[in-house]
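Many introductory courses stop at the sequence. We go one step further.
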Amino acid sequence: MPKHHLAEYNLSKLQSALRDSYFTENEALKLLFAIEEAAGNDAQKIAGAAEFCLMMVETMELGIDALVAAAFHYCSCVTAREQQSTVLGERFHMASFGDHVVRIARDAARLKELEMVAARIVQQKQQHARQDAENLRMLMLSESKDWRALAIRSAACLYRLRGILESDHWKDLDPEKVRVAREALWIYAPMAGCLGMHRLKNELEGAAFQILYRRQYELVTSLRTDAVSPGGPTVQQSMNSVLNHVQEEITSMLKEDEEFSNLVGDFTVTARVKEPYSMWCKMMSHGYKSIQQVPDAIALRIVLNADHDSDDEPIETVRARERALCYYAQKRCLERWEPQLGNPRFKDYIANPKANGYQSLHYTAQTAHGNDEWSLEIQVRSGEMHKVAEYGLASHWDYKAQKKSSGKLSEDAPPESSDAYLHKVQQWHWEQSGGAPMVNTKGKSSSARPVSVDPWLEADNLDDLWQSRVRAERIRARTRLQPYIEALTNTQSDLTRDFVFVFFEPQGAVLSLPAGACVVDALRKGCNDRAWEHFSGTSLNGRQTAVTKRLSNGDVLTLEKQC
């Protein structure tokens, strides 16, 4: 689809989104420059790369290096498609943006190349397709050196899905559309879930569901237009009414609670209706006939941030108070909205976080509305917990570690004091704007404010930059992130140590074999009975090979005579 006329517009939208996401002016300019460099001043590629990066900014939190790598990766993919190549070449000048950008882009390129091999080999078949997808996901996970590359490829899948839905003839399914949607549902949505990127996961599932299962999608959405009772409001109208009523009550209740108000800096109460794909899965697995039977079809979410007693209060103390306030808010809700009889579904993910870092308090409440009883889920979490729930813990902290930063912080840097970090933020931005190095005066760091700087660094914007306790927490958070990165690394190590994944044609499959397996092991697993003994020859990655040849991840094994 021609987009060259949107180049300037998309770049402008991206720059605005970067500002709203609190990237620095230098970081925003770096990304815009990277897009133009990666695109080679091709307006079509500039428009597409800017759109792709904008989508990533809106659906996940990644640092500037990952976004720059994503821009180069997008342009490499477009070039490979234009040249009908299965190998992604490196774009000119990418190395000038740093080694980290190059590593992420190369890792994403390797994953894309595996996808292209899979698309060529794995047939569009219903039987065994899910197992092939599972094996391909494990192959990609074992081959990835950086989780940011997995995030980029997951975002690329969503980008393709959006493109399909925006086309005029998206309902006319062809094998390519089916393949992309299946990859989204069976590979990238679960992968996004493992990374804790629930916003990305939900959108991948929703778009793929709409494409692959249009009849079921329309059925679930049509249930919302059914009348709750003859002549009464529709299910959607009733759900909105229940949510609005309870939302107002919770907000008023907490605002009028003096003890809560004294300790909370701010809080929000938001409403949500379960996504069509999740609704359909829940109804199928439990045999529900109507949306009203789904206990968490509608939900209210309280997100709170504790107030600081003083400027130098340790952030750990604030976070502990937020956890206590979450339990207190839930207690107040329990007093007003009783748990659903027989199925209260209490879940304490604050005391027992999910493996991907998710934290929140849940329970299913019951409320009367009109002549009907409605169940709804009430969730309570802190602002920090909410960010992790939406974007994933690894992604969230990667993004925060680079926000308002030169990107030169050590991965194992020790926590710094608020004052020390405050001065570093001031100094870096002042020097970036052309000023001479600043001299810190103990206890007077704010007096070192530069007099004439870029407009981005003035007034409220500069005050935002100087929220030192926020930045200090980002540095401390590296120790919180470590267990989850280690879990991902351990999974990759286990896969590499225990398994090898290979493509097998003409059977059109992705085989999972024990580490150390040879060609003959793949033949025995990929062929029925002992039919493999009757083949006329076998090749590995396009070259003749012996059956005793040891296999490596991503190898393509081909039989010259079909089993």
